[in-house]
């Protein structure tokens, strides 16, 4: 009996120790993340890279030229400082287009702004300078809107075909959460495929570009009306800035409503396409 009790005790101790060892022993089985997790992580990494690249281009195209302009304007004429500063985004446009096959939207807008500032600086000593001063901000907006509308022209030179400027801007930032054929499909190829395949997608980009272009250009006649109704340039500048801010809310509200509407239409189109594909596969198997 004593032997049995002792043996039972030893067996229990062995069982307990083996259990503890099994619990504390490191697992030799690697727990791999699910495919969906891997896909989400790869997509997020791609978007992060695009976002970081976009931020870097903003620094090169906007921040650095502005800093250079404010430094140079203390030593040389304003028009010359503006012209020199504008060469930085202009060179960035060329490098991105030739070597990276990428349309630098920030560089285009920045270069347009510096060209406009250079022209305005040259005629600043003119007798019309007091009248043009309240219009300086609107003229910048006008040129930006003109560029947006110009990119709606379907020009084609060789293998290059013009797309709306907002198309390139959104694509460079990885916006839109477009569904790929595979998770490894590059974002530029997704955008190109959506542009060629879905009319709802094209209408969204074209509509946003057109509305923003017209609204930016219409700020000039609105500001001229404000100047005509006010007595001093200071009043015109102050009231005009408030009117411009209020007016710019119109394309913002339109964009929110229009994008939501077109997104619903596009999702409906995608579901119909998927159901038709499944039905075709089933019919072929039958």
Walk me through the structure:
By secondary structure, the protein is mainly α. It has one domain (42-174, 186-273). Helix content is 77%, strand content 1%. It contains 13 helices and two strands, in the order H-H-H-H-H-H-H-E-E-H-H-H-H-H-H. The chain has helices at 2-24, 35-72, 78-85, 87-98, 105-122, 129-132, 136-150, 165-172, 187-197, 199-217, 219-229, 233-247, 249-285; strands spanning 156-157, 160-161. The chain has a two-stranded antiparallel ribbon with strand order 1-2. Strand 1 and strand 2 (160-161) form a beta hairpin. Helix 2 (35-72) runs antiparallel to helix 3 (78-85), helix 7 (136-150) runs antiparallel to helix 10 and helix 10 (199-217) runs antiparallel to helix 13. It is globular and about 80 Å long. The model is unreliable at 1-40 (pLDDT under 50).
């Amino acid at each position: 009996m004593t032997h049995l009790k002792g043996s039972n005790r030893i067996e229990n101790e062995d069982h307990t120790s083996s259990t503890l060892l099994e619990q504390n022993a490191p697992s030799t089985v690697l727990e791999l993340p699910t495919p969906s997790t891997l896909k989400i992580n790869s997509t997020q990494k791609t978007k992060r890279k695009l976002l970081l690249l976009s931020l870097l281009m903003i620094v090169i195209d906007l921040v650095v030229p502005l800093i250079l302009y404010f430094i140079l304007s203390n030593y040389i004429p304003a028009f010359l400082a503006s012209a020199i500063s504008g060469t930085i985004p202009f060179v960035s446009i060329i490098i991105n287009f030739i070597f990276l096959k990428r349309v630098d939207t920030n560089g285009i807008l920045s270069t347009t702004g510096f060209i406009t500032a250079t022209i305005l600086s040259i005629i600043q000593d003119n007798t019309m300078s007091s009248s043009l001063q309240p219009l300086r901000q609107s003229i910048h907006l006008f040129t930006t809107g003109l560029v947006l509308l110009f990119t709606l022209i379907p020009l084609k030179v060789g293998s290059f075909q013009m797309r709306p400027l907002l198309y390139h801007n959104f694509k460079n930032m990885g916006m839109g959460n477009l569904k790929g054929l595979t998770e490894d499909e590059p974002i530029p190829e997704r955008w190109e495929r959506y542009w060629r395949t879905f009319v709802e997608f094209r209408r969204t980009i074209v509509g946003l570009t057109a509305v923003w272009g017209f609204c930016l250009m219409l700020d000039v006649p609105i500001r001229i009306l404000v100047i005509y109704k006010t007595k001093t340039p200071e009043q015109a500048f102050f009231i005009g800035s408030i009117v411009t801010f209020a007016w710019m809310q119109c394309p913002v509200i339109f964009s929110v409503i229009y994008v939501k509407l077109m997104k619903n239409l596009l999702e409906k189109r995608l579901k119909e396409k998927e159901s038709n594909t499944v039905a075709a596969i089933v019919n072929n198997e039958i």
